[in-house]
Amino acid sequence: MLNIEKYKVAGEIKLANYSTSIVHDYSKDELEKELKDLGKKLGKFQDVMYAHNKYGVLIILQGMDAAGKDGLVSAVFGQFNPRGSTVSSFKKPSNLELKHDYLWRHNLALPERGKFAIFNRSHYENVLVTRVNPEYLLNENLPDILKPEDADEAFWEKRFKQIKRFEKHIAQNGTIVLKFFLNVSKDEQKKRLLDRLNDKEKHWKFAEGDLKTRSQWTEYMTCYEDAINKTSKDYAPWFVIPSDDKLTARYLTASIIHQEMKKYKDIDEPTLSKSELALFEDYRKELNKD
Questions:
Q1: pLDDT tens-place string over residues 146-159
Q2: How far apart are CA 230 and CA 165, in angstroms?
Q3: Taking a C-beta distance cutoff of 8 angstroms, is the pair 55, 235 a contact?
Q4: Are 175 and 110 in contact (CB under 8 A)?
Q5: Distance between CA 87 and CA 108 in Å, rounded?
Q6: CATH number, domain with residue 204
Q7: pLDDT tens track for 103-126
């Protein structure tokens, strides 16, 4: 079912050419079983990676409201040892965060060696939300942005370069970076937002701001496309995931992460020397004396 190259962004793309759904022969039960198996394999990989202690993994999830990011995090990473992963959700910056550059809070949440860090939304909000709503930039108190109109194309190009340098730097220092755009249709988003309004148990998920963002759909798609085209690199690739069906999106994302991890042949459990192994017999004897 899965051909990674079909979803990986290797050149300039048009999001309009990417389907938000795919046809496959898997039943729901089969997909759930495959997803559970992949979760176990990824959890085992993280255990080995923790012992290896040379790499961290950064998973970036982006998408419109109700694209399925929260559910995907739980489904794909729910079987990890709790010590092995962290999840960060980047909402509106706090007053403290606004006193630093826009990448500061993301730097703080980067994965330790041996761990996965999942960014549910990320530093890309700074070339998405603020680009669609440039008045938000004024909150950053930047020296050269005194009014929204000051954020011209040169400003955004500079910010894209900063993001690429940031990702290249962490990749060169042992962080594996994988970025996923959950591509949901406007019609499916409408269904999910109405579901939040109609189901009391989901009321907490709905925010009035979701309607404003939805009204800016075209602008957001333009900015997403530009961001993906400008920042999908070998060291930090983007994958466009059809997400109208949540279970399929979760399976595809887990499969891609698993296949990408398998490329790292040097990640293995550390081996002990003969002299170290020889000491184990002494340790056993010591323990058995109790």
A1: 999 999 999 999 99
A2: 12
A3: no
A4: yes
A5: 12
A6: 3.40.50.300
A7: 999 999 999 999 999 999 999 999
Q: Is the pTM of this model over 0.90?
A: yes
Residue 288: partners with Cβ closer than 8 Å, 6 or more residues away = none
**CA–CA dist 229, 206 (Å, integer):** 30
Cα separation of 235 and 175, whole Å? 9
Residue 193 CA to residue 207 CA, distance in Å, equals: 9
Q: Which domain holds residue 102?
A: 4-288
For residues 222 and 225, give the distance between their C-alpha atoms in angstroms, rounded to a whole number. 5
What is the DSSP code (8-state) at residue 8? B
Q: Cα separation of 196 and 25, whole Å?
A: 30
Nearby residues of 234 by Cβ (< 8 Å), 6 or more positions away: none
- In 3-state terms, what secondary structure has residue 56? strand
Phi, psi torsion values for 50, nearest 5 degrees? -65, -45
Query: For the chain, what is the domain count?
Result: 1
